[in-house]
Amino acid sequence: MHAPCRLFFYGTLTHEHSNTLTETLLPRLGGRPRRGWVRGALFLRRDRQGVYPVLLPGAGRVKGWVYGGLKPIPRSVLAAFDAWEYCDPRRPGRGEYRRANLVVHTRAGPLRAAAYLPNRRAPLGLRAVPGGDFAAHAAAHGLRVLAE
């Protein structure tokens, strides 16, 4: 699998959240982040360390950010994101998440970007994120976001 040129992040890996990956890796993707949305439904997953979003198929809009540009993302950077997402690009069906190319709608028009999507069916009890904006929802409700 070749390295994508762009990544679409909709949760804890955006510049709206502070953690080791966002502080050290996002700057290495190049360019300025662009606001965008994809077709889908966004849900909250709770963990002992905080909440994080899960993007599932749906008819709504999930808001996020496109990072990167024309050059392929460096392998070391992609490997760090893959590890965080428990994604195995050599065996995409075996990890918790897989990288999939999605159409992201931006002000400048649609573009393709890779996003991390769950490999397994969503567990029962997930709560929908109204409006599809994880950062806004977490801030509005004072939720502790998964950081590391």
Topology of this protein?
Elements: E1 6-9, H1 20-24, E2 34-47, E3 50-68, H2 75-84, E4 97-106, E5 109-118, E6 127-128, H3 134-140
Antiparallel strand pairs: 1-3, 2-3, 2-4, 2-6, 4-5
User: Total strand count, please?
Assistant: 6
**Residues in helices, as a percent range:** 10-25%
Low-confidence stretches: none
| Topology order in helix (H) and strand (E) letters | EHEEHEEEH
Radius of gyration: 14 Å
Keywords summarizing the entry:
single chain; 148 residues; mainly beta
At a glance:
This protein is mostly beta strands. The chain has three helices and six strands.
Can you characterise this structure?
By secondary structure, the protein is mainly beta. The protein is 15% helix and 40% strand. It contains three helices and six strands. Strands 1, 2, 3, 4, 5 and 6 form a six-stranded antiparallel beta sheet that branches. The radius of gyration is 14 Å and the shape is globular.
